[in-house]
Amino acid sequence: MAADAIRLMTRGDREGFVAALDAGLDPNALALGNVYILVVASRVGAVWAAEELLRRGADPNISGSDVLAHACAMEDPSFAWRLIREHGADPTLRRRGSRRTPLDNAAWWGHLELARELLDRGCPISEHSMGVLPGLGDIVHCPDGVWQAMGRLLLERGADVTARDWSGASLLMHAADFSEDIAPFMLKAGADPSVIDLHGEYALQLVVCHRLEYLADALARSELPTTDVERFLEVVRQWRWDRRGGVVLWREALSAGHSGAGASVARG
Fold first, then answer.
1. CA 223, CA 64: separation in Å to the nearest integer?
2. Per residue in 204-228, is it b (16+ CB within 10 Å) or e — as a string?
3. Rounded Cα gap, residues 43 and 252, in angstroms
4. Are 70 and 41 within 8 A, CB to CB?
5. PROSITE patterns recorded for this chain (predicted)?
6. pTM of this prediction?
7. How far apart are CA 226 and CA 218, in angstroms?
8. What is the mean pLDDT of each run of 10 residues along the chain (268 residues)?
9. Spatial distance between the Cα atoms of 26 and 31, rounded to a whole number of angstroms
10. Can you give the pLDDT at residue 138?
């Protein structure tokens, strides 16, 4: 019966879904795969169905914070606000079978005020889960214009900028894979550029590669003197052969004092 209700819900058949509930379907029922109907409704964005289930007594915390976490991942976070303020969702709970929290999704989608509300209500900041770096690491997915404020908020509330995943990769490595700007933000927040992961990858390697892409683009637009780019490339070549001195060489590149490469890189 629960499976039938889920099929009606995913088809958008509101009348049929309500009829199934009227016929006696438990709003806290489990469907095939040991998944609660309310969790499915929140996962697929069927807010109307989730609201109907909650109105009939569904427990918003029946699967840890899964329902709230799915709501925090919606482009419109209004349902997440209602879950917290009207339906009794508990932000302090973790996701079922995971150490992640609703805050991870709020940070990912750039819902700054929702993230602040979750933190105020005791939602923990995740450190790592299943090989990824949630929490502060999720700001790489934030929309432009939001990630800096989100990053500052998480740092103010105790996010660990030195967190590493199962492979030893750091937040700095994670950030360098996504953004020209977020890696320097992590460095300023205290990320260790000398970290080496289990595969021998050096944190600065990723950062430098992204900087080189930036320099190459700028050179193609004739915005940087060739000599400045050549100087920076020489520093990088030295760094590749001397990892122990990599931090010193990187700082030298950042503070080279050139009007082109060094200054542009330093601005981040």
1. 53
2. bbbbbebbbeebeebbeeeebeeeb
3. 49
4. no
5. ANK_REPEAT
6. 0.74
7. 10
8. 90 95 93 87 96 97 96 97 97 85 93 98 76 74 90 93 77 73 81 68 56 53 54 53 45 44 33
9. 11
10. 87
Helix pair angle (246-254, 226-241), 10° resolution: 170
CA distance 184 to 220: 23
d(CA 201, CA 268): 22
Domains of the chain (ranges, CATH numbers): 161-268 (1.25.40)
Q: Three-state SS for 96?
A: coil
The predicted-structure confidence for 152-188, as pLDDT tens digits, reads as follows 999 999 998 888 777 777 787 777 777 767 877 887 8
Q: Are 59 and 70 in contact (CB under 8 A)?
A: no
Yes or no: say if 27 and 21 are a contact pair by the CB < 8 Å rule: yes
Contact 161, 186 (CB under 8 A): yes
What are 32-35's contacts with CB under 8 Å, separation 24+?
32/2, 32/3
Q: What is the dihedral of CA 129, 195, 123, 106, to 10 degrees?
A: -80
Cβ 58 vs Cβ 38: under 8 Å: yes
